[in-house]
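Interim report to the steering committee. The following record documents the input for Response regulator (209 residues).
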Amino acid sequence: MNYKILLVDDHLVVKAGVSIILNNEIENLSIAYSSDYFETIHLIKINQYDLIVLDINIPGGKSTAMIAEIKSYLPNVKILMFSAYEEESYALRYIHAGADGYLNKLSGEDKIVEAVKSIMTSGKYLTSTIINKLNDNHRNNEPVNPFDKLSNRELEIAKLLVKGEGNLEISNCLGIQMSTVSTYKNRVFEKLKINNLVELIEKYKLFYD
């Protein structure tokens, strides 16, 4: 029986390359293709797949929300995130959302084959980096999303800062003193382990874009 894979990527070269690598190394594969998220949803509504190799940054994509939506149509399908984004920053976010593995596009041919074989046999592909990160978070009782550590007011202020609002605008918007805004801002930076607004924006995009 063929193991059915849907390879989702908007770059033809990537799809062709990965397909050649997998077909050369793994027997009995049936590989289909999709170039955007809308086409992906259409295909999974009318076909069954064992594994979806899913690029994070595809046209029409919905970040981590794609995982739950795909599994609402195919509850037993495995999802391997395939992205150029660095593993350490992005992998946990998608694993936490329900993905079964995360593979960097810069990985060599052997890693691509290893990832697919691992999911075929065990249902998961977790590198040592991901496992160590998961263990660290569990040991330190750290949430996957660091913004979960913020109070409602701190998160509210963080969002306003990300939108480009200054202390004065936030003070007027929330009806609090500017000194209070500064206090909350310092707490946000401390809890997120960041030093400036640029780092706040970058971290926020990781978890909410």
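The chain is about 55% helix and 15% strand. The committee is asked to note this result when reviewing the revised timeline.
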